[in-house]
Amino acid sequence: MAKRARKDGSSLISTNSKQKAVKRTRKGKNVGKLAMLLKMPMDILFEILAHLRPLDLLHVARTSKELRRILLAPSSTSVWKDSLSADLDLPECPPDLSYPGWAHLVYDPFCHMCSDSRVKNPDWKLRVRLCALCSKRGLSACQPWSVYFRDLPIQELLPHHDVKDNRSIYVKADIDKMVKTWKSIKDTAARWQFSEERRDIVERIDEHASRCEAWARKKALDKIAYQDTVRLARRTSIIQKLKDAGYTADIESMTEDDWASFDRLRPVAQKRALTDQAWKNMKENVVEFIMSCRDKQPADAN
Ligand SMILES: [Zn+2]
After folding, report:
1. Residue 298: strand, helix, or coil
2. Distance CA 61, CA 48 (A)
3. Which segments constitute the F-box domain (predicted)?
4. How far is the CA of 9 from the centre of ligand 1 (A)?
5. Of 136, 158, 175, 212, which shows the fewest CB atoms inside 10 Å?
6. Three-state DSSP class for residue 34
7. Ligand 1 centre from 170 Cα, in Å?
8. What's the gap in Å between 137 CA and the centre of ligand 1?
9. Is the confidence at residue 34, as pLDDT, over 50?
10. In the predicted model, is pLDDT for residue 169 greater than 80?
11. How far is the CA of 67 from the centre of ligand 1 (A)?
C-alpha cells in the first residue's frame, strides 16, 4: 500500500486565519515579546514551546514568518507531539496530517474558510471546521452516478456523509483533486489498485473520526461536570459569606422558590470561582435579595 505523506501543515494554517491571529495577538501586545523567542538558543526555544498548548503554538506560528518556518519544520515535530500529549485521551494524529494540521483541526475554534465565525466542533470525517455559510461554499452533496464522476467510484475514494436521496456530502476541493488524480491514472489495473488503497484509507479515516467524536463528546461532558462543580462551589461560598455577614436566620427560612430564584441570580449562577472582588461587587444585590425574601415571610404570631 502506498504510504501517504503527511501534509506540511502550511495550507492548514490559512493566510486569512494567520492575519486574523496576528491582529488578535497585536491587540494583546504580545508580538514584541514573541520576537524575543527568536533570540534564544534553539534548544531552549523548543523547551519553552513544548510547554505551550497546541492552540498557543498555532498562534505563535502565525505571529511571524520566522516562527512559522521554525514551527512547521520537521525538526519541530517533538514540540507539537509534547504539546498534544498533554490532552491524554486525544486520539493520535492521523498519518496523513501534519501535527500542526491536526492541532489546527482539533483546537482552532474558528471556521477554516472565513476565520470569522467560531465553530463548536470540526467535522472529524471530512476534517474541516466550517461555519454554516462556508459549508455551503466548501461542501458538496452529490449522487455517486453524477456525470462529473463518470466511472470514478467516489464513495470508495473519499470520506463522506451519506444523506437523503442517495446523496453524500464531500469537501468540494477533495472532489476536484480526486477527479484530477483519477483522470491521471489511465491503466485499469492501476485504477483498481488505487481504489483498493483509497478504500482502506477511507475506512481508517471513518474509524479515527468515530474515536474523535467520542473524545469530543466526553470532553464536552467533562466540561459541563467541571463547570457544575465550580458553580456549586461558588454558590456554597456565597452562602457562607452571607452567614458570616449575619444572615443565617434569613437563609434558613428561605423557601424552595426562594432558593430557585437565588440560584438564578446572575452573580450566583456564574461558572467561576468566587473571588473577594466578585463578592464585593455582588454583596449589595445578594443581600437585597435576601431582604426581599425576609419581607415575604409571614409575621411571627405572638
Ligand atoms: Zn466560515
Report:
1. coil
2. 14
3. 34-83
4. 19
5. 136
6. helix
7. 16
8. 9
9. yes
10. yes
11. 26
Whether 265 and 289 have beta carbons less than 8 Å apart is answered as: yes
Cell output for 24: 488578535
Position of cell 470508495? 156
Q: What pLDDT, on the 0 to 100 scale, is given for residue 89?
A: 92
Strand partners, 161: 169
The whole-number average pLDDT for the span 1-29 is 49
Cα separation, 282 vs 13, in Å, equals 43
Maximal CA-CA distance, the chain: 102
Average pLDDT, integer, range 217-231: 94
Identify the bridge partners of residue 170 per DSSP, sorted by sequence position.
Answer: 140
d(CA 130, CA 237): 41
Q: How far apart are CA 250 and CA 258, in angstroms?
A: 11
The model's pLDDT over 252-274, given as tens digits with 9 standing for 90+, comes to 999 999 999 999 999 999 999 99
Q: Are 83 and 52 in contact (CB under 8 A)?
A: yes
- Of 113, 109, 107, 26, the C-alpha closest to 62 is 26
**pLDDT of 30:** 57
Measured in whole angstroms, the distance separating CA 291 from the mean position of its chain's CA atoms is 44
- Residue partners of 130: CB distance under 8 A and separation at least 6: 111, 112, 113, 119, 123, 138, 139
pTM summary value? 0.75
3-class secondary structure, 171: strand
β-bridge mates for residue 110, sequence order: 118
Distance 130 CA to ligand 1 centre (A): 5
Residue in this structure with the C-alpha cell 437585597, named with its chain if needed: 288
Ion ligand 1 — residues with CB under 5 Å?
111, 113-114, 131, 134
